[in-house]
Amino acid sequence: MATVEAPTRPQIRLHEGPFVNEPLTDFSKEENARQMRAAIEKVRGQLGREYDLILGGKRVRTQDKIKSINPAKPSQIVGLHQKAGKEQVEPAITAALHAFESWSRTSVEERASLLFRVGDLLRQRKFEFCAWLSFEVSKNWAEADGDVAETIDFCEYYSREALRLAKTELPVQMPGERDTLFYIPLGVGAVIPPWNFPCAIMAGMTLASIVSGNTVILKPSSDSPTIAAKFVELLEEAGIPDGVVNFCPGAGASFGDAVVSHPKTRYIAFTGSREVGLRINKVAADNAPGQIWIKRTVLEMGGKDAIVVDADADLDAAVEGVASSAFGFQGQKCSACSRAIIDERIYDKFLEKLKVRVEKITVGDPAENTNMGAVINEGSMKDILNYIEVGKKDGRLITGGARDTKAGDGFYVQPTVIADIAPKSKLEQEEIFGPVLVVIKSKNFDHGLEIANDTEFGLTGAVYTKSREKIERAKRDFHVGNLYINRKCTGATVGAHPFGGFNMSGTDSKSGGPDYLYLFTQGKSVGEKIG
Ligand code: NAD
User: Which helix (H) or strand (E) covers residue 274, if one does?
Assistant: First the structure.
């Protein structure tokens, strides 16, 4: 009689020892630069390929396509993707529900072991992933490396966290009982990431989901589906069972919305803009026919992050911190400094130094490792340029102020600084998400904090001061999820800076921190009579 062989499962191998961050690559070392250049050439040879949807392990093609292009060379297609529509929602949910039956019962060791394998594979392909990030979203080498290193950190960190959660012990045992608490998975989750950390955020929300025993419909941003496709290939290589992650690029407004509203979707892990986050919150709150739970939402949204510089601050350090927070990855980080709030006693001196520093920034093809690449797409470039025009009227242009055409037809915008912007004005309140920094004059440190807190956001912030007393005041009064003292406000590190914002910046989910996996699980308390 013929026997049906069960699929062979990879061996469980857990990494020993405490979590350690993946080191960043030093590209000033010729060997690293050589490997990066080689990876860029290798990836260049793979541009323009077509990628399928993956539903329950099956490759699916659709009529409609998404063309992912290189923002630095808009005629260059990075990847051609299927475009999931409403008709793919049911098959995707069905595949994820089916996989949930076995994946939710798979041991935590096996699930953690999968993440460790993914991390190991990614470590081997680090330069290649960096190259994809450079082509698809215009990250320079160091920015791409930070994104990939963070992804590896999530593999290493969330796997250890899942193992820790599985060993939760209760502080009280009732006499004659064995009292335990298990963190069990939620169900099928919609994972909806943005394009700006297309590897780390996309992978982070996916990895936290699956290590907790959930199954996922992954809908990457239409600006960065290729990196997500490469990541899903890694998951498959690491032995992920069919249906645990269903890969579905598609339009947010049709496919995304329909997945969010589906009665069998148990939770939504979203990172993106305030507008879309609020929309998801509203749609998810509705009780669809057949829905038997309150959908959980993990929503991380925009920012209008400020750095407050006190009169006694180390001015050179403050200028460096502001410039790198404002213009790293073209200012397209949710944590980017978009407001520098400067004490009036040092205001002119600060602007003078800042102008010199910003004018050293090189703009051009990030594959050649310039300081700044292109912004993500044409629409975004136009929005940014519109904000700059408003800024020229509302304030004083210090440097930049236009599209950068020197570097070709890419979506390049000059690093722009606009001074004398008034609190509560448009540029002081709205997230621009591009290389535009506004500078605001404050009367003193307290006034600086007051201005810093005057938006509806509350994501990151920094202060530069030598005063212990003012540092303590900032720790108490600067209302942001991630505060930094005497350093830049970007570059949160997994384990050290759990990341998530207040107010309209989101639900403060603190990714990369010890509370994160609770958002992807539910606690089941069991009191068992013994003896
Ligand atoms: P976005 O809101 O436009 O898109 C995010 C994702 O939502 C995309 O995958 C998109 O396709 C999807 N989407 C759009 N409409 C949808 C709908 N109706 N239903 C379901 N999904 C939908 O954001 P973006 O432009 O990709 O990213 C930039 C934004 O993300 C900025 O506001 C930035 O501050 C924010 N961000 C926040 C964090 C954080 O941790 N707080 C991190 C990175 C980026």
Answer: helix 274-285
* CA distances in angstroms from 310 to 68, 289, 339, listed in the order given: 44, 56, 14
The pLDDT assigned to 515 comes to: 97
Domain edges within the chain: 30-301+510-524, 305-494
How high is the mean pLDDT in each 10-residue block of the chain (531 residues)?
62 94 98 98 98 98 98 98 97 98 98 98 98 98 98 98 98 98 98 98 99 98 98 98 98 96 98 98 96 98 98 98 98 98 98 98 97 98 98 98 95 98 98 98 98 98 98 98 98 98 98 98 98 81
Angle in degrees, CA 270, 273, 276, rounded to 5: 70
CA distance 349 to 344: 10
pLDDT of amino acid 10: 85
pTM metric for this prediction: 0.98
**pLDDT at site 6:** 58
Which residues form the catalytic set?
A: 300, 334
Cβ-contact 185, 521 below 8 angstroms: yes
Superfamily of domain 30-301+510-524: Aldehyde Dehydrogenase; Chain A, domain 1 (3.40.605.10)
* Residue given tokens 């072991």 in the structure block: 113
d(CA 341, CA 304): 12
Q: How far apart are CA 439 and CA 459, in angstroms?
A: 18
The CATH number of 305-494 is 3.40.309.10
Q: What is residue 4's predicted lDDT score, i.e. its pLDDT?
A: 56
The candidate with the shortest Cα–Cα distance to 136, out of 88, 191, 202, 192, is 202
What is the end-to-end Cα distance of the chain in Å, rounded?
A: 48
Half-sphere exposure of 460 (CA within 13 A, CB side): 28
pLDDT at 5: 61
Ligand 1 pocket by C-beta < 6 Å: which residues?
192-197, 201, 219, 221-222, 252-253, 256-257, 260, 271-273, 276, 279-280, 300-303, 334, 431, 433, 459, 499, 501, 505-506
pLDDT of residue 424: 98
Q: Which atom of ligand 1 is nearest to the CA of 277?
A: 2
Q: What is the DSSP string of 159-172?
A: HHHHHHHTT---S-
Is residue 382 within a helix (H) or strand (E), and if so which, with residue range? helix 378-394
CA of 274 to the centre of ligand 1 (A): 8
Could you give the count of Cα atoms lying within 13 Å of 210 in the half-sphere of its Cβ? 32
